[in-house]
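Per your request, structure below.
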């Protein structure tokens, strides 16, 4: 997987997972000496990694090992807020070491497994299908990760694969919405905008991954605040718009 990394802040998650090359590690550690926000970010992510390792000490059933792969992988990968405007995703990229990422992913899967353990067989079957879709995108050779800040606060992270014409979206720390309102995902093409699903309710500030298929070159992905039943077309301005890689 390629990780956008032209700004040192974007390396906090990979640093916490020991997933950086030596040049990137040295660069980020120099940055840490000057950035309080990134020190706190890296510290909290390392603590989360330790907790995930403790969870994985209880061996899960084999079929849960890859469930919801993005639960741990799609953490914040963008600079801290420095202005009131939305941030633009970076343009640089680097490779993230797959073995290290897989360790963190396995921990995230265990947390999800604890939450969904009581689901019916039909619901578990749907989760297995979603798991396969997520795994296909994250394991695609052209998978690219990008992030953006919401204009309302919080972040959105996308992993996209042109090969699979699909993306995986998750969010962190979006503002809570009034009763009866939800966040809706939109795929925004050159000549149309189509609904692409509703974000699930957050757990500890993060939403579970949403898979969006049928992605075309030049598309953008956006988030709006909509009635809980969803809308045919947006009824509010997008709080996040991410331009997908060509």
């Amino acid at each position: 997987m390629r990780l956008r990394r032209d700004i040192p802040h974007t390396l906090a998650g990979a640093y916490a997972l020991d997933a950086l090359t030596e040049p990137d590690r040295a660069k980020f550690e120099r940055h840490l000496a000057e950035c309080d926000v990134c020190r706190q970010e890296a510290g909290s992510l390392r603590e989360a990694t330790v907790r995930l390792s403790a969870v994985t000490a209880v061996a899960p059933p084999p079929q849960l090992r890859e469930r919801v792969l993005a639960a741990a992988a799609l953490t914040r990968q963008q600079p801290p807020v420095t202005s009131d405007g939305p941030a633009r995703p970076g343009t640089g990229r680097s490779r993230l070491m797959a073995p290290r990422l897989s360790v963190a992913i396995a921990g995230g899967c265990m947390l999800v497994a604890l939450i969904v353990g009581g689901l019916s067989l039909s619901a578990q079957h749907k989760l297995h299908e979603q798991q396969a879709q997520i795994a296909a995108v994250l394991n695609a050779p052209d998978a690219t990760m990008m992030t953006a800040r919401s204009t309302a606060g919080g972040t959105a992270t996308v992993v996209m694969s042109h090969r699979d014409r699909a993306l995986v979206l998750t969010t962190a720390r979006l503002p809570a919405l009034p009763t009866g309102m939800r966040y809706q995902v939109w795929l925004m093409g050159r000549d149309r905008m189509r609904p692409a699903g509703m974000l699930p309710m957050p757990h500890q500030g993060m939403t579970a991954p949403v898979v969006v298929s049928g992605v075309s070159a030049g598309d953008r992905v956006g988030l709006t605040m909509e009635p809980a039943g969803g809308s045919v077309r947006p009824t509010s301005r997008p709080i996040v718009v991410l331009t997908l890689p060509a």
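Residues 1-6, 51-116 have pLDDT under 50 and may be disordered.

Regards,
D.
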